[in-house]
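Lecture 7 notes: from sequence to structure.

We start with a single chain of 155 residues. Read the sequence below before looking at the structure.
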Amino acid sequence: MRRDATQVLAMCAWVKKQIGKVEDQAKAIADVSIPDEKAAGLVGDTVVSYTSRIARQPELAITDSDMFTAWVAEHYPTELVQAVRPSFMTVLRDNARIAGAVLGPGGEVCEYAELADPVIYTTTRLTKDADRALGPVLGGVSLAELPNFIEESQA
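Now the structure, written as tokens:
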């Protein structure tokens, strides 16, 4: 008999959490033990992975938005654009959720903006009892057996 979807999702979430703990520990060790170049992961004599430490390119951080804008206006005046303040966009969105449309101060409807359909997704959050209940059920199952066990066994 197949498990219901909520049981499968709970088991998957628990396994991800456990693997995440192991991965976090391995990354903490790798951060201090792997050189800047890549290191091979071996199973026996077979290379099964490469791990390397990567630094992203630095991002530009604006420390004073108003002063930076004034600087750009002085040095690169053709590079400025008129924009709506992001914090006001949040206000407009919140008001539109209530009213069903973007409204002006006099109640007139803005025809140039609309609420987009929400993205619906499924999420699973483990409860505080998940370790106690799922640990004994899944703890003894091998990684190779895990997908079939989760999908097909009875709870």
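Helices lie at 5-33, 65-75, 86-99, 130-138, 146-152. Keep this in mind for problem set 3.
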